[in-house]
Amino acid sequence: MSTTSKPQDNSKFGHLPLSTSGPQETTLTGNALLRTPYFNKGSAFTKEERDTFKLHSLLPSNMQTLDEQVRRAYAQYSSRPNDLAKNTFMASLKEQNHVLYYKLILDHLKEMFPVIYTPTEGDAIAEYSTLFRRSEGCFLNIDDADRIEDDIKQWGNPEDIDVIVVSDGQQILGIGDQGVGAILISVAKLVIYTLCAGIHPSRTLPVVLDCGTDNKELLDDDLYLGLPKGRVQGERYDDFVDKFVSACRKRYPKAYIHFEDFGLNNARRILDKYTPEIACFNDDVQGTGCVTLAAIMAAFKVSGVNWDEARFVMFGSGSAGTGIADQIKDAIAQNTGKSVEEAGRQIWCVDKPGLLLQGKKNELTPAQLPYARADKEWEGKEHGDLLSVIKEVKPHVLIGTSTKPGAFTQDAIREMAKHVERPVIFPLSNPTRLHEAKPQDLYDWTDGKALVATGSPFPPVKHNGKEYEISECNNSVTFPGIGLGAILSRTRLMTPALLVAAVKALASAAPVVNNSGAGLLPDVENVREISVQIAKSVIKKAIEDDLAQEKDIPTNDDDLEEWIREQMWNAEYRPLKLIKEHTANAHAKGEAGTASGHREAKFDH
């Protein structure tokens, strides 16, 4: 996927603070300029820039293009012996040159995505303390909770940060409690925001909330870099999270907060607490739900199932499963006029003990409780396994988030296909080895009638001489566009209505809907264009619901798209303009995205 070059000046929207056309101002020269990754061009600095910024003796004489630099970097990347070594190489490149780093990934997106993100990023997180070279991001620990406000101030002035990704590391990418290594998932999510939606990389803040860890391997490791004690929970933990959110709102009142990989008992609870107060998002709960809902919408276009009659079975009812159920419930309510409670009656949730029942409410999480069925409904009926529930419910849609490989058995799938014409089946657990079923089996067991999307990439399958593309429910086609819309509109809240608007925009881009293929979701290679459309829908809904705080947002669709694109960061070198220090902001001084000693330093007198 390539980026599109822009004119040097945009006469209509070039005045915007986030405009990406025209020159960038800086006070830096010489080595200071080369050490600033969002200004550094390495061998691509022009002769004029080498004159102006005193770079001649600091660089080899042959000036090269960005494409030539990418070729060299790709050869270096390809020479690394394994994916973890490639991940480490990319982290080093990012510290040197933002444009080259992102351009390299964009040119090789499908190949590099699993290296810079899941699954390889999980390996890097697990090895964080072993591989550590240089810190990146903001480290807050629960033993110094009273210092949070001062610590947060070091990362910018109030207008400098657009998005904050924060994790406490309790439930990382299917590999569990990783303690302070969670800083890398916050970093990786922000990379995805930039790649997929053009969020300015120097205007982001990755944070880890170090509350200790219950991972014995980490606690027994002398090299572990986090708090070497068990994970703190309860009132002290809640107070720590609250101090963090309050400090962010005070220092960066316009920043959008993204919660990532919090534990099962905290993720939904924290999201529910802050959603009525601030613009926030949890990708594990809402992102997975949004992308899955978009695939369901596309599948219903094919199957002709109506929202008021659709029956859903969720197999696996943790953060992801209940998050998806919540998105489905909101969509049913919006599409049918039913109350949210009534809409929830169309969803049956199954977990380890079987169907969730009200009689076991003491064993259920707050997120599971709304989906517990009355015990009397199931008196005398089998409900302890998936096949029994399918026989009784006759679902149109079966979704797996159980991490139980092979759980969608041939008997269960064939039973489902007896009762509905086009069964919609999404085995979403990842990585691939944890999938509830293989797409090939789903097509074979339903005689090619199944409508399938998965949680990890799968190659196309063949059935009766036809080839079928398998859509991946990849959150990266969803959350970046939602974040872009939130940031540009400065929405006060991220409401269910805004999320449904985003989902509809994503669903409308599905190949099966626009007659460009059979996929239930668009390909990740088209993600930047998809993000524009999602952002546009989010912004329009935010304006309609009186949530947008940004002024002078265009109302004409064409102008709104240009307004969005003008503010999306691109992996291309822009001209640099040398300015005097007294007129410069933090970005021009090379202080953006770093804790500047000049900003809040305390001097001895």
From TrEMBL:
(S)-malate binds at residues 430, 474. It catalyses: oxaloacetate + H(+) = pyruvate + CO2; (S)-malate + NAD(+) = pyruvate + CO2 + NADH. GO terms for biological process: malate metabolic process. Residues 94-275 form the Malic enzyme N-terminal domain. It comes from the Eukaryota. Its cofactor is Mg(2+); Mn(2+). This is Malic enzyme. It comes from Cucurbitaria berberidis CBS 394.84.
